[in-house]
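Fill in residues.
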């Protein structure tokens, strides 16, 4: 969608890697100016201790056709977030799209571990990173976003409201974090609608993030080699797919029709007609319900 978002300003909070990076790049590909934030920079890494940096993301945004601006920010620190928004206001005078993608909890939860056995400090830290950061960021950024009619807030989570309502997600803390973000989008929608803005929750499917690829010992160019060990990984998608979902929402003059909704990359692809980088349209959440969860053999026919 070249130039469809030219003149628009976006803030992607948590854009170092994964979905945040994919979203930032696709907003850039549509012509937007994109502020990308996180704690991993070329000067130092977060506790993830990974090589991806916000400066790299900003460069990718610019290479895609937009204007990427990296701003190191700890979104648990209200003063840092306030300073970030002040900078956006000083430099651009507007904010059209806010994407709350801060997560940071990948190393803090234990699969299928009950609350009373889970490390409490890790669990509470996860909730702060996954929930409190979003509230702090919205508190400071929304006054600027509301100055221009038609603003969009995207709360990034894992799982649709329907799927998460019916399924236990990983652990008490993980489940609570993802449900909280879904509810934040709903609450924001109620508060933003009369003020001319829209809020939605959005989930990717099985994301081929940098960390996921590393966990499976593959790269993006040979990711299918992992299917011998994890056959259902065949439904996975690149971070750019959910990025195209956000860009499509941001460019939609009738985006208010989605206000308060829980959306997925695969579902929006059917509406807006975009594809993943390989030309396919993976629909992971339908696949999980109809194929993976019932323990059927892996077969993506009709699902991508």
């Amino acid at each position: 969608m070249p130039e469809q978002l030219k003149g628009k300003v976006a803030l992607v909070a948590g854009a170092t890697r994964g979905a945040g990076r994919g979203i930032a790049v696709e907003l850039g590909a549509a012509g937007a100016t994109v502020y990308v934030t996180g704690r991993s920079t070329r000067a130092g890494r977060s506790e993830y201790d990974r090589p991806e940096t916000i400066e790299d993301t900003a460069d990718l945004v610019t290479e895609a056709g937009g204007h990427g601006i990296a701003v190191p920010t700890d979104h648990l620190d209200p003063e840092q977030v306030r300073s970030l928004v002040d900078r956006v206001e000083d430099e651009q005078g507007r904010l059209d799209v806010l994407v709350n993608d801060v997560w940071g909890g990948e190393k803090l939860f234990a699969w299928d571990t009950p609350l009373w056995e889970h490390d409490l400090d890790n669990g509470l830290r996860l909730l702060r990173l996954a929930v409190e950061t979003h509230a702090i960021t919205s508190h400071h950024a929304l006054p600027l976003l509301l100055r221009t009619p038609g603003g969009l807030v995207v709360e990034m989570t894992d799982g649709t409201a329907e799927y998460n309502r019916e399924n236990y997600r990983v652990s008490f803390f993980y489940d609570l974090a993802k449900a909280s973000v879904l509810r934040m989008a709903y609450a924001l929608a109620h508060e933003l609608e009369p003020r001319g803005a829209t809020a939605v929750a959005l989930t990717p499917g099985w994301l081929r993030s940098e960390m996921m690829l590393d966990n499976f010992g593959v790269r993006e160019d040979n990711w299918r080699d992992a299917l011998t060990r994890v056959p259902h990984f065949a439904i996975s998608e690149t971070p750019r797919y959910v990025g195209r979902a956000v860009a499509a929402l941001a460019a939609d003059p009738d985006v208010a029709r989605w206000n308060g909704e829980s959306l997925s990359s695969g579902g929006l692809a059917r509406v807006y007609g975009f594809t993943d980088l390989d030309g396919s349209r993976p629909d992971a959440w339908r696949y999980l319900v109809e194929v993976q969860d019932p323990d059927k053999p892996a077969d993506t026919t009709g699902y991508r």
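The longest strand covers residues 33-38.
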